Amino acid sequence: MEAWRVIDFGKQDIRYMMAMNEAIHRCDEGNTLIFWDPTRSIILGYFQKAAVELDLEQVEDYTLVRRTSGGGVAFSDDLNRQINYGVFGTVDEINFPLDIVESYKHILGILIDTLEEYGLNAAFRPINDVVVDNKKISGNAMTRLDNKTLQHGTLLLDFDIKEMLRILNIPKEKFMDKQIASIEQGMTWMDKELGYKEDMHVVKQKIRKNFETRFGVKLVETVPSEQEEALARELLPKYHSDEWTYKR
Amino acid sequence: MVLEDYLKGIHKSKGGIIRSFLKVDNGLISDISFSGDFFMFPEDAIDVILARLNGTAATEEAVLSAIKEVYGSEGIQSPGTTPEDFTISIMQAVGGK
């Protein structure tokens, strides 16, 4: 059976993790699954302007960073109940289809399988969401370098939605169109659905197992290569720079 | 940039929100930028679109044609978002205050 890498970074500064995401993507040292626990932070999608998407006066005590992939703001609160993951793979016909939506669907099947194990009614909602009873529980983004896919995202175990609403300037049109009366009704998280706090480590283990089943591979626990670490260090100043954060 | 100085358009495509910020000088688009949660592959093609739009006539026909041209030359994929979606957002800005 083919062996792919799995790296769990634990709690890390989000700028380091964004640099590491880009470094692993660029180094292309084989298909890889990563996890990290984000610190209090806001990640802008590649095409988003900070001043438009955020209430800048409210975000001064957050680490603000831009990522290389499109999509919307990713918000991490102090609850530390989010599983953040990244999947790196070379485009092929089965595991990483060229078609973007098909590729999301295939990878997000892992999260759906995991949520279903808990008896939750999870489904893929194109382009890039996983929903439980049509409420968003996971947001995801994808980017490509040549034929290498990077998909990263978050699965919510708990979420401070009031705090998110405080810092964001969310266009109401997005939610009106989905006929959802309020943003609060449009989102959910595992603790709320299950009625208890599942151990995050247990959820991660289930994700790993479902990953192995879906891709037909064995995950081997490791750490980033020297080359990846070196490139992440080299990229780090970019992720600290206003030039990058306020690029758009 | 001071957002208040710009004409603004907003349009929700299936793939995400597209907000446009631009000026119109003598019937030509200038200083255009976008903000939104859409996806585009490759990402940097957005800069080619913006560069192509600056100096383009502020008409629906010219804008759509310019964006389609860059989609072709750059091989852009933008799931759920089309050149028409960008054009709607831009023309809303052009027609706005």
What attributes does this structure have?
heterodimer, A: 248 residues, alpha/beta, BirA Bifunctional Protein, domain 2, eight-stranded mixed β-sheet, B: 97 residues, alpha+beta, Enolase-like, domain 1, three-stranded antiparallel β-sheet, 3 strands
How far do the termini of chain A sit from each other?
44 Å
The largest beta-sheet of chain B arranges its strands as: 1-2-3
* Average predicted local confidence, pLDDT of chain B: 96
User: From the structure provided, what is the oligomeric state, counting identical versus distinct chains?
Assistant: heterodimer
How many separate structural domains of chain A?
Answer: 1
Tell the overall outline of chain B: globular
What number of domains of chain B?
Answer: 1
CATH topology of chain B: Enolase-like, domain 1
Our estimate of the beta-strand percent of chain B is 25-35%
Number of strand segments of chain A = 11
In short:
The complex is a heterodimer of chains A (248) and B (97). Chain A is an alpha/beta fold and 248 residues long.
Folded structure, characterized:
The complex is a heterodimer of chains A (248) and B (97). Chain A is of the alpha/beta class and 248 residues long. Chain A contains ten helices and eleven strands. Chain A has a single domain (3-245), classed as BirA Bifunctional Protein, domain 2 (2-Layer Sandwich), CATH 3.30.930.10. In chain A, helix 1 (14-27) crosses helix 9. Chain A is globular, with a radius of gyration of 17 Å. In chain B, strands 1-2-3 form a three-stranded antiparallel sheet. The model of chain B has no long low-confidence stretch (mean pLDDT 96). At the A-B interface, helix 2, strand 9 and helix 5 of A face strand 2 and strand 3 of B.
Fold topology:
The complex is a heterodimer of chains A (248) and B (97).
Chain A: E1 3-12, H1 14-27, E2 32-38, E3 41-44, H2 50-53, E4 63-66, E5 74-76, E6 82-90, H3 100-117, E7 122-125, E8 129-132, E9 135-145, E10 148-156, H4 161-167, H5 172-177, H6 183-186, H7 190-194, H8 200-215, E11 218-221, H9 226-240, H10 242-245
Parallel strand pairs in A: 1-2, 1-11, 3-4
Antiparallel strand pairs in A: 2-6, 3-5, 6-10, 7-8, 8-9, 9-10
Helix pairs in contact in A: 1-9, 3-8
Chain B: E1 7-13, E2 16-25, E3 28-35, H1 45-53, H2 60-74, H3 83-94
Antiparallel strand pairs in B: 1-2, 2-3
